[in-house]
Specification:
About 25% of the residues lie in helices and about 35% in strands. The structure holds coenzyme A (COA).
Length: about 140
Amino acid sequence: MNHDNWFAITQLQVADDQKHFVAPNTFSLTQAHYQPELKLVPLGAFEGDTPVGFVMYGQYHYEGKDMQLIFRLMVDKNHQRKGYGRAIMEQTIERMKMLPMCEAIYISFEPENIAAKNLYIGVGFEDTGTIDEDEVIYRLKVI
Ligand SMILES: CC(C)(COP(=O)(O)OP(=O)(O)OC[C@H]1O[C@@H](n2cnc3c(N)ncnc32)[C@H](O)[C@@H]1OP(=O)(O)O)[C@@H](O)C(=O)NCCC(=O)NCCS
């Protein structure tokens, strides 16, 4: 994302019945600015010049440990079910694997979010059996 295209990312929307699954991208970008301790990395996903999705990862302190966490993922409602979600996840995992000391990548989601669950299992995440703030936590082992 840069000076020329960040605004387009703020305009991406999920469907109305998906809005409770993910914060608006404007919120995520604001959070990345004001919570530097999370080391958040917001990334826009583009097909050519067309914005299609957004992902943001960072560091989450949980039970005395720092974990690498994917905080947000969304694909615009007009671009879903075209493989973008999977492509974004695969590329994000490749980036995160290069982070120093990255032994595992975590992601959490509401248990009724079947699309997210299928997608995460499809790219290799496994249930940790832990629930935090009503969200299930999945993990992808890197090492
Ligand atoms: C979850 C989300 C990112 C998936 O993005 P997408 O671009 O539609 O996903 P893809 O087209 O790459 O699909 C990848 C896999 O996800 C699963 N999937 C995606 N949409 C699904 C749906 N509506 N129902 C069931 N499974 C679904 C499937 O396993 C699919 O693989 P397949 O096409 O081989 O069946 C998208 O639905 C979204 O933005 N949802 C709202 C926000 C959200 O819930 N974010 C996650 C918060 S934790």
